[in-house]
Design goal:
This protein is of the alpha/beta class. The protein has one domain: Ribonuclease Z/Hydroxyacylglutathione hydrolase-like (Metallo-beta-lactamase, Chain A). The strands form 2 sheets. A 7-stranded mixed beta sheet has the order 6-5-4-3-2-1-14. The longest helix is centred in the C-terminal third of the chain and has 11 residues. The termini are close together.
């Protein structure tokens, strides 16, 4: 059985948004407190982190996350990499280097932005991230499981989703090519971004996300990366059977 825990389910601003007095930003529903998007997958006794959101330290403390064995990066935007330096604590806990997987373009940006994380400077773990960067150019094996990268378009930027077994996590998509739709067939759980009801140039709207879910027919689907334009309760009321709104801290199990 594979489990996925949503560490953060918000958009790049996070929710509440600075300086905003809208009803969602002032909501007392804890499901409306959305930190930047990140998640982790439990594979037996191994933990695979997806992205290093800006609030990674707080997210890990809230979830009781004490172990990370590998990191899958979807792309290099700041809300998905802002917690990159917090990986050093997981180096310290594990007392070893950690593998990071990213498409070549994202890997290049990570090498440039976090060059210190990929060279050995200290004779101990914990002073900085100590990482081994792997370029993703096709499916690969990780802890005995096949990881299939899912190329999608984030506006004009190619980014990756990931499929492990019958679970797939796709965030920051605006368009999913037919070749990638084929890779998402037969899912038990699909996680898909849905920014808001109104269309957006680089993110799926709720209606666009639901149309993709209808085409793919996973057993269950969860929408993530929501903005402050809709509350959890309001968005939930729009969902057909089998589709739910994710929230920070939610854990789901794949059959």
């Amino acid at each position: 059985m594979t489990t996925l825990t949503f560490l953060g389910t918000g958009t790049s601003n996070g929710i509440p948004v600075i300086g905003c007095d809208c009803s969602v930003c002032r909501s007392d529903d804890p499901r409306d407190q959305r930190s930047r998007a990140s998640a982790f997958i439990q594979l037996g006794d191994r933990v695979v982190l997806i992205d290093t959101a800006t609030e990674l330290r707080r997210q890990a403390l809230r979830a009781g996350l004490r172990q990370v064995d590998a990191i899958l990066m979807t792309h290099a935007h700041a809300d998905h990499t802002g917690g990159f330096d917090d990986l050093r604590r997981f180096n310290e806990l594990a007392q070893r280097h950690l593998p990071v997987y990213a498409d070549p373009g994202t890997a290049e940006m990570l090498r440039d932005r976090f060059a210190y994380a990929f060279v050995d400077q200290f004779p101990f773990y914990g002073g900085k991230p100590d990482l081994l960067l792997h370029d993703v150019e096709g499916p690969f094996e990780l802890f005995g499981e096949l990881v299939t990268p899912i190329p999608v378009m984030h506006g004009r930027l190619p980014v990756l989703g990931y499929r492990i077994g019958d679970l797939a996590y796709v965030t920051d998509a605006k368009a999913i090519p037919e070749s990638s739709m084929a890779l998402l067939q037969g899912l038990d759980i699909l996680v898909l971004n849905a920014l808001r009801e109104r269309p957006h140039p680089t993110h799926l709207s709720i209606a666009e996300a639901l149309a993709i879910i209808e085409a793919l027919q996973p057993r269950r689907a969860f929408l993530t990366h929501l903005s402050h334009e809709t509350s959890h309760a309001e968005a939930s009321a729009l969902m057909p059977p089998g589709v739910e709104i994710a929230y920070d801290g939610l854990t789901v199990e794949s059959m």
